[in-house]
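User: Hi! I'm working on a homework problem where we have to compare a predicted structure to a textbook description. Could you give me the structure for the chain below?
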Amino acid sequence: MEINKTLENDKMILALDGRLDTTSAPQLQDVLLPAFEEASAVKLDFSGLEYISSAGLRVLLAGQKTAQTKNASMTVSGVSEEIMEVFTMTGFTEILTIE
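Assistant: Happy to help. Predicted structure tokens:
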């Protein structure tokens, strides 16, 4: 998986490309959690994401919890039908802010 990181004013955009699974979840965690030190808003662009596993969901949950403790925001955009189905089945539509 590739992660392209862009900082615009106080908003960090993380564009993901590929698969978010057991192998790549630690890579996202290493970028996502520290992003809240640099920005008060983090946007995850999933338009290039093909797949998400439970390991990826755990990282998103950790990101959401970090955002709340830092009084920041985390949004997810560009979600495919397949990934939205996973979010719906797991209840993540109630946890995440999805654009």
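For your comparison, note the following. The mean pLDDT is 97. The first strand starts at residue 2 and ends at 8. Good luck with the assignment!
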